[in-house]
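Running this now, will post back.
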Amino acid sequence: MPAWSIQPQEVFGVLSSVSEHVGDEDGTEGLTGHMTSLETHLNEANSAANSDPIGTALAEFAEHYFGEIGGMVSKSASAVSGAGGLNPGSWTRG
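Update: finished.
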């Protein structure tokens, strides 16, 4: 069986980078920040259009894509959390 050589500092670096890309719970950074920005722009577009059909289309678009993006954020955060919670003592195999 081949030996594993997992470097905890390198793993931490990757997890930190992924976390930055995912963003924060406040929606100010990363993908969550883009979601917040998209919501703002969709609301502005809806107000500017002042049209029921366009408002309906924008709402359907938002419902679909926020579900997709929210799923990406959830799965990414879960993966980072799970990988970050591993016991470093179990990372050596020989």
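The first strand starts at residue 4 and ends at 5. More later if anyone needs it.
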